[in-house]
Specification:
By secondary structure, the protein is mainly α. It has 12 helices and no strands.
């Protein structure tokens, strides 16, 4: 059995990474066959009437140059041709008000930056006398390209989770306002519009714009709220749409149900805040224990060193 040295292991790993990168490059460049599901979905989308939504209208492409917009459009078209809809990513971007083309262009640019970062680090090592050969720089370049390409996705996921939490809090207040308007004798559409016009902040602005779009397109307000919930990935808006649909179809009592939903949302938010506070308390406790242990070692080291 041939013993494997560290240099040989590094060379094998670098070669595997280079082969993986070349395979991904070939798959990306090669024109792909449109899948059956993607083709049928495209035909259905062509037959359906085009629809506009608030999320589509506010997607921001400001600050994007023409070449970045073209790059993002080409990558988005390549993903659509392969049947990759990335619905969760689209929902995150809809919450943030960012376009998919801008995100994809940023991902490609970060990947190119990471691809250049590996050789730069290897070159800096060669300046100080560290020679890593040819395969290691290529492997590091691919590794850094992959890590840098994941940075925009991680940032979008984190920011979208925070924005959804704010939106969920606003939906709880919105339900209370709708319940109070219904108690005042207003109908469901008037109560929704009045409740959305009272609140401030970007979640209530999104609700107002959604209801305004519904009036322009001839949609019911609850259908528009359900569509908004699908676009931004918020289950609370989907549940509200389903409950209001029952009111319109079956004449169900809704005021007490909305108040109960708002109370449930507040209790869940309170439980999440208590859980986060408990986690932070545990982190502070661990930090305090480490500080105490360090202080005890600092005090006991002179005596132990004299004894030994």
């Amino acid at each position: 059995m041939i013993p494997l040295s560290a240099d040989l292991v590094y060379a094998l790993l670098a070669g595997a990474l280079v082969a993986l990168g070349l395979l991904l490059l070939v798959l990306a460049v090669r024109p792909s066959r449109v899948g059956i599901a993607a083709g049928i979905a495209r035909l259905d989308a062509d037959r359906q009437a085009p629809r506009m939504s608030v999320s589509d209208a506010i997607l921001s492409t400001e600050g994007l140059s023409d070449w970045r917009l073209r790059l993002g459009s080409r990558v988005a078209a390549a993903l659509a041709a392969r049947g990759l809809r990335v619905q969760s990513l689209r929902a995150d971007l809809a919450v943030l008000g960012r376009s998919l083309e801008g995100f994809l262009a940023s991902t490609v640019l970060f990947a190119v930056l990471g691809l250049l970062l590996g050789p730069l680090l290897v070159g800096a090592g060669m300046l100080v006398g560290v020679d890593l050969g040819l395969t290691v720089p290529l492997g590091l370049a691919l590794l850094f390209a992959l890590l840098c390409a994941l940075l925009p996705l991680a940032a979008v996921r984190r920011e979208a989770a925070r924005r959804r939490q704010d939106f969920r809090h606003a939906v709880g207040a919105f339900l209370d306002l709708v319940s109070m308007n219904l108690a005042g004798g207003r109908g469901v559409p008037e109560a929704l519009s009045a409740a959305a016009s009272i609140g401030g902040g970007w979640p209530f602005a999104r609700l107002r714009d959604t209801l305004a779009f519904a009036r322009l397109q001839g949609l019911t307000p609850w259908a528009a709220l359900g569509r908004l919930g699908d676009e931004v990935g918020l289950n609370e808006l989907r549940d509200l749409s389903a409950a209001l649909t029952l009111v319109a179809d079956d004449g169900a009592k809704i005021r007490a149900s909305l108040a109960a939903r708002a109370a449930t949302l507040r209790r869940r938010e309170l439980a999440e805040m208590e859980g986060k506070a408990g986690q932070r308390s545990q982190s502070m406790l661990v930090a305090q224990m480490l500080i105490v242990m360090g202080y005890l070692l600092f005090l006991g080291y002179p005596a132990v060193s004299r004894i030994l």
